[in-house]
Amino acid sequence: MFGFLNKKRKSLIGMDIGSNVVKCLRLDLTGPRPTLTHFGMADLPPEAIVDGEIMDRELVIEAIREAADRADLPNDPVASAVAGRAVIVKKIVMDKMSEDDAREAIYWEAEQHVPFDIDDISLDFQILQDDIGADQMELLLVAAKKDMILGYAELIRDAGFNPMVIDVASFANQNAWEYLLHHGPASDDLDGEFDADMDSESRDGDDSAEEAHESSETVALLDVGGGVTNVHIIKEGIPHFTRDLPLGVANFLEEFQKQLGLTYETAQRVARGDIDGVDAQLVTEIVHAVGSEIYDGLEPSLSYMKTSGESDGFDRIVLSGGGAHLPGLLAFLAERYGVPCEVADPLRALNFEPDLFGPGEAEELGPLLTVSVGLALREGV
Ligand SMILES: Nc1ncnc2c1ncn2[C@@H]1O[C@H](COP(=O)(O)OP(=O)(O)OP(=O)(O)O)[C@@H](O)[C@H]1O
Ligand SMILES: [Mg+2]
Asked: Would the CB of 183 count as within 6 Å of ligand 1?
């Protein structure tokens, strides 16, 4: 998106400054397959970043340094991302013209679509359809507040690193998914998938991994983060829709604490899928109740996509973020939407030494790392 340089890199650090957890990882991009060489993360107090805006710089810098120290990161270029209300992604229609001309005209067009002063934003776009009739074309407009982009870049610099690219988190997530789709292991290890419709003829259990992951599918990437759920719907590499729902792991934790009488620490353990010693039935009910709010939050947008003829809904859900292991959430979403649902595992497309992670840690952390992997792959794809 908002690249400061556009050179191919031999290695890149993906730095996902989430509102709850900072994740850093470095990919060596010289081999036939990217190699994950360094990895580290650190918690952030909830007041440090609110709705993508940095409220306490010092806390964030400290967390970046902590994650970087744990990863023992070398000083390579960094790709990071912004998210939240200061980022706007919108499909727009404008007069047909060349990409170069559009690059200039987009500033005039954007004025009608972005609720910020045009001088205060950085713009990027992608032509989705270069001819939609009536001499018009369709573009995807991406706008982000300049001070936010510069603020993130400065933060990374103040933490001792060199920011090279500031992307948008949902696009980085998409990048990781697409990389996995096109370069991932073409094996049949789809262990994490939960198929709501296993018995139907179309999915008779003989599908190969490639068939199961048709690239013509409409895929909903659902990133259930600490504070928000980002929904990013893509088809054939083109984002159709992206939206933040104001619901995240925190909402599940709150209900676990309240209804199950748990400490915050035990609620965290439950959120990560360990329900030992707690009322499993109640956990399921809570996950269904909060999961329904996510479902309901998405409904208006889905209906809009259907009525506008953009899409008949989606064919697959890929769940990422810290909420991916919430007990029963995967099955619940698969059932409500009636489509296969799987947990994102971006590490599957990477080489790494087994001792980079503790036992079972790679599977546990994979879904939290989609954005950072997508960022670190940014120049390598
Ligand atoms: N292994 C884990 N390590 C840390 N947090 C985890 C883990 N598993 C689940 N979680 C939960 O997920 C939350 C963090 O999720 P995630 O990293 O996706 O959020 P974030 O990116 O910081 O937030 P957002 O995307 O909303 O800005 C934590 O607050 C915690 O409750
Ligand atoms: Mg996140």
From this structure: no
Give mean pLDDT, residues 149-168.
95
Three-class DSSP category at 56: coil
Q: Tell me the CA end-to-end span of the chain in Å, nearest whole number.
A: 14
Instruction: Tell me how far the alpha carbon of residue 23 lies from the centroid of ligand 1, in angstroms.
Output: 10
- Mean pLDDT score of the chain, rounded to an integer? 87
Q: What's phi and psi for 115, nearest 5 deg?
A: -80, 25
SS3 content of the chain, % helix, strand, coil (to 5): 40, 25, 35
Cβ-based neighbours of 231, under 8 Å, separated by 6 or more? 220, 221, 222, 223, 241, 242, 243, 244, 245, 298, 301
CATH topology of domain 193-344: Nucleotidyltransferase; domain 5 (3.30.420)
pTM reported for the whole predicted model: 0.89
pLDDT tens for 121-131 read 999 898 888 89
Distance 223 CA to ligand 2 centre (A): 7
CB atoms within 10 A of CB 286: 23
CATH 1.20.1050.10 matches 87-146: no
Q: Among 164, 160, 178, 179, which residue's Cα sits nearest to residue 1?
A: 164
Does residue 370 have its Cβ closer than 6 Å to ligand 1?
no
Least confident of 108-117, 247-256, 359-368: 108-117
The percentage of the chain sitting over the pLDDT mark of 70, rounded to a whole number, equals 89
Query: What is the greatest pairwise CA distance in the chain?
Result: 64
- 112 vs 223, which has greater pLDDT? 223
Where exactly are the structural domains of the chain? 2-84+149-170, 87-146, 193-344
Q: How confident is the model at residue 3 (pLDDT cuts 50, 70, 90)?
A: low
Residue nearest atom 24 in ligand 1 by C-alpha distance: 225
CA angle 329, 314, 363 (to 5 degrees): 40
3-state DSSP call for residue 371?
helix
Residue 330: pLDDT over 80: yes
- State which fold the 2-84+149-170 domain adopts: Nucleotidyltransferase; domain 5 (3.30.420)
